[in-house]
Write a structure and sequence with these properties.
By secondary structure, the chain is α/β, with parallel strands linked by helices. Strands 1, 2, 3, 4, 5, 6 and 7 form a 7-stranded mixed β-sheet that branches. It is elongated and about 65 Å long. The longest helix has 22 residues. A hairpin with a 2-residue loop joins strand 2 and strand 3. It is built from 4 helices and 7 strands; from the N terminus they run αβββαββαββα. The protein has a single domain, classed as Double Stranded RNA Binding Domain. Helix 2 crosses helix 4.
Length: 192
């Protein structure tokens, strides 16, 4: 019994030892609208994913999750009366495109895999959120481009820290910050 528990523990440490780090790179985000909660907005979402310069497929679930992060930020901002997914009857329309670029050393990643993560590796994910805001007639009110990044760190001794530095948590913070900074700039520029 003890042997099985030890095997499961070691296997878990080898498989799940990736930490995620994100620092607040876009500064304080202050969203202040002239008329909070007065208008509705619908949002179209697209996503592009690359790994070391090569286009990488993104699952439908991955796209849905990323879209939900941005929609969530729009809803929680209090700027809009209602946020509609996809094209719909609304006062405003936002075309959002999220680009994710994963940059890593293939050699270091291979060396880390061969040594079962005794030699560490890392991946830097750079995010770009490009949002075009339009009125209900389709007239462009303005465009906002924001960039952010996070780091995934993979090293065997770090598995005990995983609950405190989850990749999912760092990823969510990076996307939330992008969407919040986009809304802050759009309201500051008076797009709505």
């Amino acid at each position: 019994m003890l042997k099985r528990v030890l095997i499961i523990f070691v296997a878990g440490a080898l498989v799940g030892n990736c930490l995620g780090f994100h620092s607040k790179q876009l500064g304080e985000i202050n969203i202040s609208s002239k008329s909070p909660g007065a208008k509705t907005i619908s949002m179209a979402f697209s996503m592009e994913n690359t790994a070391n310069g090569m286009v990488s497929a993104m699952s439908e679930e991955g796209i849905r999750v990323n879209k939900s992060f941005i929609l969530d930020t729009f809803v929680k901002s209090g700027v809009f009366k209602d946020v509609i997914q996809g094209e719909g009857k609304s006062d405003l329309f936002a075309e959002t495109k999220l680009t994710r670029k994963d940059l890593s050393s293939n050699g270091l990643f291979l060396l880390s895999a061969i040594t079962l993560s005794i030699i560490p590796s890392y991946i830097t994910s750079e995010f770009t959120l490009e949002t075009t805001f339009k009125d209900k007639a389709g007239k462009v009110l303005g465009k906002v481009l924001k960039e952010n990044k996070m780091t995934h760190f993979n090293w065997l001794p770090t598995f005990l820290l995983m609950p405190f530095f989850s990749v999912e948590g760092a990823y969510r913070k990076a996307i939330d910050e992008l969407a919040g900074a986009t809304l802050a700039e759009a309201t500051t520029k008076g797009f709505f």
